[in-house]
Amino acid sequence: MDKFISATASGRRLSASGKRIGAGTIDQYRQVYKLLQQFEALQQTRIRIQLLYRHSKRQLQQEKNYWQRFYRKFLQYLYQERGCYDQYAGSVCKVIKVLFRYLAIEKGLPTGEYYKTFRVPQGQPKPVVLTPAQLRWLITDEQFVSQLRPCLQRTKDLFVFGCTTGLRYADLMRLKRTDLQYLPEGGVCLCLPTGKTGAVVQIPLPDYALAITEKYKRKSGRYLLPRLANSNFNLQIKEVMRLAGWDHPLPRLRQRQGRLQEVRNREGGCWRFYEHITA
């Protein structure tokens, strides 16, 4: 696994489309590596991959049983020891399957295809979004904005710009002034390739979005918007939502082993609306 991560980080291993794999995906590989090491320490045994050159039917069945036991115990570790839900457990198992495909296809090692049975029920959390009226209020209510601290005003502007363009937060932070394109018939749009898919998108900007870029023109340098870490943004946008008065209770539902469960907050109560808002 360590060599697999090194090959990915150095660019020797590429995606199916021939592009280099992003830093976020490599960080995910490292997190799975740590989980496997912690699982080994808890089980007090080493995970081994046996090469299947010439084996009898009985030996192949033993190997199948070994990986079924590993999968069952590893999922139990994720759910019970780590408190994970189906979405995270599924992403971890996906990385393990990618490792096995790397060994089989790129390294030519006969490890078997038992990894194909690693399946986890996928439960996507339901997103919580603002209504058009709430977003319009954030854009137009100058009295509310004047009451915010400067750092919260900046976060509110980033949030409004992100809602308007529909860009992922990483793409939002990569925007440069050169990404602005002035159209011959008038108006301005963003023209840029997205970091995840590489697809070139062209997004027209309304006047209030252009005003946000002009507001931070001197502070952001070559970037279009002020830079802010994702974690800090999430903390500050929750504060903006709380000050806006959007604090009605909402359930937070997650799937664990195919069963829908409600996640309670640390105080044992229901999550508030603003606690759901993230980048």
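The record above closes out task 2.4. Task 2.5 opens with a second protein, given below.
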Amino acid sequence: MSHTPRTVITVSTSGDMNEPTREFPEYPRGRAIAEKPRTDAETEPIEPVEGEGGRRFGRSLVWLVVIVGLIGAVVLGSRVVGLWPHFRNPFAQQQTDRSQPPLLKSIQDLSRFTAAEGNFEIVIDLQKNRKYVPDFLLNERTLFVAAGSVESYVDFSTISEGAIVVSADGKSVEVKLPAPQLTGARLDLDRSYVFAEQRGLLNRLGDVFNGDPNRQQQTYKLAQDRIEAAARDSGLNQRAEENTRKMLEGLLRSLGYTTVTVTFAAT
């Protein structure tokens, strides 16, 4: 193994020239590199200033929030204007209307005056169960909020020939009309809804194997019957008589009659 020669410089202050005082490090052969001697201040490690790392982290966090906010604003804005693609749910519910066009069955001429209309609302609480059978097995209970209307009208087509009597001087007239009638209750489907429904286990199983599409038909029919009964007791026909009388009095007075008498047949 070869050894690199070392240079030793000796300096003696005591007169002994052979005593070495300092030994310089050896350099590899080749071009010499001059090194500047380091002071004590340069050799000490530099400690970071207190709080500098925290401020850097805070600035980085602020920039991150700003960038995320800008990205969110761009995405939201592009969705609003329709630039961002909208992915549809492949399992979304679809509705297909296969209804047939309406068929006109008949046209009927009406000669009646609708004088009053009543709007009603009723809660139907209908329950079907079996005696000695628990409700959780066999039970049907429906709370149905029904809203409907009933009209009161006078049918002018039934007026007989002698129903209108004019006085000799042409100043007075007497009109005899049939009694007002009530139409059937019409349910307002936009305002009617099932509020709650309870069905037993056997009822639900029966729907799976043998569903009844007309199951709510009885509830609707009961709601119509209750509304019609309420209309009969509401004084709707009396209001129809008053409105019809006022209408005819104004019409006949405009024709020159000074005295107008309108009567209705007894119901």
